[in-house]
Amino acid sequence: MKKILAIDDQPAILMCLEKALESKGYQLIVTSDPEEGARMLKEDMSINLALLDIRMPKKDGFEIYREVREHRKLPVLFVTAFQKSFTTNSDDVVEMWQKEFADGTTDIIYKPFSLNLLFEKVEGLIGTAEEEK
Amino acid sequence: MSQADLDINRNVRKILVKHFIDLGCLSLRSSNGRVTIRGELMRIFGVAEKLSPPIVETIFGDIKRISGVKHIDIELENWTNEGGRWHQRKTETKSDHQAVQQLDYQDYKSYDLDADMPKP
């Protein structure tokens, strides 16, 4: 079974993600604490995919992404309401886009989204829950 | 989904990223080498050079040449292919609407998921 860690400071969204993706057979770990989530992503090598909100207190999703990707090339799906988070007006975003997004293991989904799109994005990154990758 | 299809997906994303395409505006599915791309083809914010028909042609030409790709279905809201040439549609798109929404929603914490998301 594939394991997904979702980090979002809104517990209601985490509950929705958990319920939706568990119905597809994925194992979900959720946390609204970005620092705890970043630690888990670095320590638990059995996690197959990270779902990251971007705007969070204490630590934003981009910081977590950079930290984790220094350790391992974990597939990541950014889950955000803010399309403008991805902008070439930020040198940091451009560097991240060209260095990390370029290997094709990162995707983006904008809130609000349909469940079908969520399933498609997750399966498109790591396959269905039971398939070996 | 086979490993071959996952590899195709990854290679499609690589091409889209190379052209600064906003991945969040597209849906991508590969099945037995058949690639389906839906949504809006647009660049992330801040890219000075706008998408043009030759660039769109290059993007989909590169995708067609990915190893294992047998067929590509493209259903875009903001671009259309007529007689082998790409044209940008003039209609209002989801991203126009979303941009307005983003201006309106200063407090992003009030954002809710779609109605079809399961209720906690």
What does this 3D model show about the protein?
The complex is a heterodimer of chains A (133) and B (120). Chain A is of the alpha/beta class and 133 residues long. Chain A is built from five helices and five strands. Chain A has helices at 11-22, 34-43, 61-71, 91-99, 115-126, and strands spanning 3-7, 27-31, 47-52, 76-80, 106-110. A five-stranded parallel β-sheet of chain A has the order 2-1-3-4-5, with helices on both faces. The model of chain A has no long low-confidence stretch (mean pLDDT 95). Residues 99-116 of chain B have low confidence and may be disordered. Chain B has a three-stranded mixed β-sheet. In chain B, 32% of the residues lie in helices and 22% in strands. Chain B is globular and about 35 Å long. Chain B is an alpha+beta fold and 120 residues long. Chain B contains three helices and five strands; from the N terminus they run αββαβββα. Chain B starts with a helix and ends in a 16-residue tail after the last helix. The A-B interface holds A 10-13, 15-16, 19-20, 55, 78, 80-84, 86-90, 97, 101-115, 117, 120-121, 123-128, 131, 133 and B 1, 3, 6, 9-14, 17-18, 20, 22-25, 27-30, 44-47, 95, 98-99, 102, 105, 108-109, 111-114, 116-120.
Structural class of chain A: alpha/beta
Largest sheet of chain A: 5 strands, parallel
Number of strands of chain B: 5
% residues in beta strands of chain A: 15-25%
Keywords summarizing the entry:
heterodimer; A: 133 residues; alpha/beta; 5 helices; B: 120 residues; alpha+beta; 3 helices; 32% helix; 22% strand
Strand-helix topology:
The complex is a heterodimer of chains A (133) and B (120).
Chain A (H helix, E strand, L loop, with lengths): L2 E5 L3 H12 L4 E5 L2 H10 L3 E6 L8 H11 L4 E5 L10 H9 L6 E5 L4 H12 L7
Parallel strand pairs in A: 1-2, 1-3, 3-4, 4-5
Chain B lengths: L2 H16 L7 E6 L2 E6 L13 H12 L6 E6 L2 E4 L2 E4 L5 H11 L16
Parallel strand pairs in B: 2-3
Antiparallel strand pairs in B: 1-2, 4-5
